């Protein structure tokens, strides 16, 4: 876990959770965040809660009103009916109860499978719902930044898309890791992708895992700077 340890040192693990939603709110937040900047999806989520008050009210409202509330998101015309569809599906499957708190009593694998039977919920959304919410269950989400860094480090083949990469990357983590450790792994790789390992013009000279990165080595001609080199300076 040399990559994890170095990135955690660089980005200050343990990394604080960015919010503490109940799992149903986290699921809705994750659905709104798809291909949307955090500021805009956060604004859409707040408008939705402010306007309707409860998820039951969102579920039962005219779709046009829900769409208006989530307008800051990309594709609000798609996300509004999808959110309502998901809320109705949960209500039906739970015998009239609109809550995901029961997931706390399931193993992670079963909780993810239950969520992924909902319309439009894939591995990233299911993992985010379990890990980011107050459930704090050790499921690993993989976003585009995390995925790019993992591919460049050779943790997964470049041919593996984001969706299938979840199972492969999660299997590489120690089975006894806590939710905080899984969260740190996700956040550290994501932050590295945002700040150093950019899609275009990655800043390999600033990379703390350059000597472990086949992609970086190919770009720099093998001129890796290791942590031991840094300490020797």
How many domains, as an integer?
2
Global shape: globular
Number of helices: 13
Radius of gyration computed on alpha carbons: 19 Å
CATH topology description of the largest domain: Endonuclease III, domain 1
What is the CATH architecture assignment of the largest domain?
Answer: Orthogonal Bundle
Corresponding CATH superfamily of the largest domain: Hypothetical protein, domain 2
CATH class of the largest domain: Mainly Alpha
Question: Ranges with pLDDT <50 over ≥5 residues?
Answer: 225-233
DSSP strand (E) fraction?
under 5%
Q: Return the average pLDDT rounded to an integer.
A: 94
Helix content: 55-70%
Largest sheet: none
Measured distance between first and last alpha carbons? 25 Å
Describe this entry's structure for a reader.
- The chain is mainly alpha-helical and about 230 residues long.
- It folds into two domains: about 1-15 and about 140-220, Helix-hairpin-Helix base-excision DNA repair enzymes (C-terminal) (Endonuclease Iii, domain 2); about 25-130, Hypothetical protein, domain 2 (Endonuclease III, domain 1).
- Helices cover about 60% and strands about 0% of the residues.
- It is built from 13 helices and no strands.
- The protein has helices at about 1-10, 25-35, 40-50, 55-60, 65-70, 75-95, 110-115, 125-130, 145-150, 160-170, 180-195, 215-220, 225-230.
- Helix 5 crosses helix 6 (about 75-95).
- The radius of gyration is 19 Å and the shape is globular.
């Amino acid at each position: 876990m040399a990559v994890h340890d170095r990135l955690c040192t660089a980005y200050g693990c343990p990394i604080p959770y960015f919010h503490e939603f109940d799992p149903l709110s986290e699921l809705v937040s994750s659905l709104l965040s798809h291909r949307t900047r955090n500021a805009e999806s956060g604004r859409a989520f707040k408008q939705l809660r402010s306007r309707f008050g409860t998820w039951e009210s969102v579920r039962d409202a005219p779709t046009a009103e829900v769409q208006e509330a989530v307008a800051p998101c990309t594709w609000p015309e798609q996300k509004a009916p999808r959110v309502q569809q998901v809320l109705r599906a949960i209500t039906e499957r739970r015998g009239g109860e609109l809550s995901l708190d029961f997931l706390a009593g399931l193993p992670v694998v079963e909780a993810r499978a239950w969520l992924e039977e909902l319309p439009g919920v894939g591995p990233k959304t299911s993992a985010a719902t379990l890990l980011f919410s107050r459930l704090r269950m050790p499921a690993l989400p993989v976003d585009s930044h995390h995925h790019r860094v993992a591919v460049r480090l050779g943790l997964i083949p470049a041919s593996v898309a984001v969706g299938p990469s979840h199972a492969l990357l999660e299997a590489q983590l120690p089975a006894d890791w806590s939710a905080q450790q899984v969260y740190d792994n996700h956040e550290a790789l994501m932050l590295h992708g945002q700040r150093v390992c950019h899609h275009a013009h990655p800043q390999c000279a600033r990379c703390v895992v350059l000597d472990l990165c086949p992609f970086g080595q190919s770009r720099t001609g093998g001129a890796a700077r290791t942590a031991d080199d840094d300490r020797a300076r």
